[in-house]
Amino acid sequence: MVKKVRKAVFPAAGLGTRFLPATKASPKEMLPIVDKPMIQYAVEEAEACKIKEYIVITGKSKRAIEDHFDVAWELEENLKSKGKNAILKEIQQLAQHQFAYIRQGEPLGLGHAILCSQPFVKDEPFAVILSDDIIDPDDNLLGDMIKIYNRHNATVLALQRVPKSEIHRYGVIAGKEVRRNVYKISDMVEKPKASAAPSDLAIIGRYILTPDIFNIIQKTPPGKGGEIQLTDALKILLKRKPVYGYLFEGKRYDGGDKVGYLKATVELALKNKGVKDEFKEYLLSRVSSIT
Ligand code: UTP
Question: Which CATH architecture has domain 7-290?
């Protein structure tokens, strides 16, 4: 029988160097998009798929993440006394889930960060959500991936087509489309040159993994950048077991990159009831003056 996906891992121990100095003392995952930190969007995505156990991989200067999802008595009392009930409810909901935090002593790579979650994931399948890859909240990428996992009882990676000029920033797959937007993966390469990329299908920050990945990561040597790469471990896995890719055609923003982060801010602000009208008016007034 296929085991249910009940747990989600949020790797958040990276240094976030592309966002320095903002990330010197505060986590990249806490950078807000409009009024919520990136990691909250990620948690809400898991929540929408009825996943209830969250494991955050943290490192130095990441305490703010724990505080964000914890009870805040003083703040709550203050909001209560001022009758700010709507925001009070929102704040209280943040502390209602089961979180576990694991420190990754050194940022040795995404593969290593995932290995750190093993004591909590144990022998279950699990979702991995990279909070700096922002998926439009109206899309249901993770839900669609879980359906594919349930059908095949196998690892599923999210894919997106990316232009040649950006391909060197991603893990890239070779594979065969077996159903609409579902690929059986035959090979993958981490951050290839455009000329060496096996396709334009890049791996993006959502994964449904099975627990057999842990033993493989343990034996995976450091790869690109001296880090233990998840892509390298997945490459070993696909020699032993089928690995599927799901081509996501919705909207994604690379929140780990400054321009991607700004795009996400604009797009989500244009969807936010509280600010969209005024913001749209402002943007329109600016467009004519940008040269
Ligand atoms: P990135 O490749 O975006 O790295 O990691 P980064 O350190 O966050 O940012 P830059 O490139 O220095 O600007 C992708 C995800 O994997 C996590 C990060 O926190 C991010 O969510 N990660 C990466 C870890 O948890 N541990 C690591 O050792 C590396």
Answer: Alpha-Beta Complex (3.90)
